[in-house]
Amino acid sequence: MSAHSGPVTPSVASFESDVLSIEIEGPVATLWLDRPEKRNAMGPAFWSDLPRAMAAIGADPELRAVVIAAKGPHFSVGLDLVAMSGLTGPAREEDPPRSQAARARTARAEVLRLQASVTTVADCHLPVIAAIHGYCIGGGVDLAAACDIRLASADALLSVREAKVAIVADLGSLQRLPRIIGKGHVAELAFTGRDITAAHAAEIGLVNRVSADQPAVLADARALAGEIAANSPLAVQGTKAVLAAGEGRSVAEGLDYVATWNAAFLASDDLIEAMTAFVEKRPGRFTGN
Description:
Layout: E1 20-25, E2 28-33, H1 44-58, E3 65-70, H2 85-88, H3 100-122, E4 128-132, E5 135-137, H4 139-146, E6 149-153, E7 157-159, H5 173-181, H6 183-192, E8 196-197, H7 198-203, E9 209-211, H8 214-229, H9 233-246, H10 251-265, H11 269-280
Parallel strand pairs: 2-3, 3-4, 4-6, 5-7, 6-9
Antiparallel strand pairs: 1-2, 7-8
Helix pairs in contact: 1-3, 3-4, 4-5, 5-6, 9-10
């Protein structure tokens, strides 16, 4: 029996998964999609383990930025249609008989669970950068859209593919992408289900920039994460919170929110350090206090 009387805080060191792995380098965590033999298809283990991974990363006070990358030749081919056939396929003969309403309730609950899994990435208080290479299809785009910043290798192919397999994209792309690339581009991608190149993705703003290849996009994502991590974590995490709070609000409401936020943090040690470092003409050494 555990000696803990309350919930156990997850830790990066104790995190275990058959499909995900976490690598720490200084203040930057790399969350690896680690099912290369299946092109990082997203099966049951992925959906249950992603929230655990994000909780472990978010609970580590030393971390300041996250990179999501993938092992093998592809970022992700999306939902594992075979492993998830109970959600995506028709009723099987061996299944107990259920009404259409009962099946619909079960399917809705499962979709909401998968949505919540992806949302743990968007809700992470740390900045999250996607390093995309190879195929990034369906659920791969949902995952990338939940990140704050997206980089891609020149060989990347991205697709909101669901219309081609007769379903509506339901894990976040249709909700998050309009804020990233605009309604017209989202409509074209989602209605056609076509693949687009990394160059096209950069042209429409789906990715920030394109790197030469897989090693380069990982290096670029980690360098960007390191640049972010060098800033005050109070300011970076506050900026992410203010950006999120501003969605759906007027400019005036957003300004009021950030005024209240900053009023709580103007006496921080980080701000004093920033001013001292400026006067002394040196980089700041921020503690997040």
